[in-house]
Write a structure and sequence with these properties.
single chain; about 90 residues; alpha+beta; two-stranded antiparallel ribbon; 3 helices; 2 strands; about 40% helix; disordered N terminus
Length: about 90
């Protein structure tokens, strides 16, 4: 309980910014190439934070990466630990 209070004060949980994600996508094109007729869609990949926002990660392109959907789902499972203690 005390740890949750410390984390809540130490690193407020920011909202994910679409602007920052768009900036990341401009700097780092889709690894599989964009879907036909789209500049933003990237089938099979998602933009994910390297250090999750729930674990005090920053919402900026330097903290983002392309991940396959499968890798992102696996990472989401261990990220729950950070969310539980917030």
């Amino acid at each position: 309980m005390i740890l949750a209070l410390i984390l809540a004060v130490a690193c407020p949980h920011p909202a994910r910014s679409r602007t920052e994600v768009h900036h990341f996508m401009q700097l780092h094109p889709c690894p599989g190439g964009p879907d036909r007729g789209s500049q933003r869609r990237c089938r099979g990949y998602v933009v994910d934070h390297i250090k999750p926002l729930a674990c005090c990660g920053k919402d900026e392109p330097a903290n983002m990466q392309w991940q396959t959907v499968k890798e992102a789902k696996a990472k989401d499972r261990w990220e729950l630990d950070c969310r539980r203690y917030r």
